């Protein structure tokens, strides 16, 4: 059932109804219920409810799992789940959570839970990051999105937090992610964490091998490959024929090909971007702003989100909605392990466009005139240097160190 005055669907034959504007966006498709979670406090509450409601198993992976109030709360709930007999597995990224001590997870391990870190500092593979975020209960209910387990993603403190987005899925589609999680756990607990094995895992999940045109759901796994990441290949295909494109992105530094596709959508029925005005890394904002001129000249609408730092990853292309962990920068497009869910449903897409329209009301629109007026020689130099660091050097160094030999471990 879709809400917020948008279309309610049960497959293609869904009926329409009106709901209060404050109702969460929700849709039921093929026996799977999706609920969009928009606010930081609601994200943490939903994650706690997911954990507390588990009966048999909990499987979590987070890029950042901080040793702060939220991290300790989630650990406490996981320990409580173990006490009632739930099998608990937690994985975190070795790079994203490098500052988080193992002592935070000692009570979980002592209670019989399983814990592992993705990646190792002892090789160039440390530059390959698993940027996925997933919490799975009983292989039937899961949460995905861009948020990590850290106070800032849950609205704490209010004046210096991240605005993010989560998706709760309840239904048979969760089982696919249980299979992916099992493969990932076996890799993380292997002695060498072989790079070749990881790449084979990503190839096994290539969308071309698992696509049923009648199924509105497509799970997209991104990972380190020599070409465009598999998740981004599907986005690229959709963008090639896109009539309407809407994106909300925390980090935006794509290459020329993706820029051209965005511009083509603008010439059809329109393209709209919401990007951050605030971030924890000023270079990423400067790098994105370098790209504003070519897009604005081709009719793309650009907004900068004002209330706080933006961490959202949301794409709507015609009737397809993408929600998950992937940014629209070179690292997510080519290198990181990412997890995106593509949902094709006209009502859900309409609802998410309405959500994006609401965010434009919290944003400052960038016109070509204001952009030109703000672009001094000094800012141009800063933007070029930032793009070089964010969009070229990080990407190039990581690829050259990790793709020297296609059969390398």
TrEMBL record:
- Organism per entry: Sphingobium yanoikuyae (Sphingomonas yanoikuyae)
Biological process GO terms, please? cardiolipin biosynthetic process
Q: What does this protein do?
A: Could be a virulence factor.
Feature: compositional bias, Polar residues: 15-25
Xref: InterPro entries = PLD-like_dom (IPR025202), PLipase_D/transphosphatidylase (IPR001736)
Protein known as: Phospholipase D
Q: Where in the cell is it found?
A: Secreted
Q: Which domain of life is it from?
A: Bacteria
GO CC term (a single one):
extracellular region
- Family annotation (PROSITE patterns): PLD
Kindly indicate whether the keyword Coiled coil belongs to this entry.
no
Q: Which UniProt keywords apply?
A: Secreted
> What are the residue boundaries of the PLD phosphodiesterase domain, all occurrences included?
126-153, 310-332
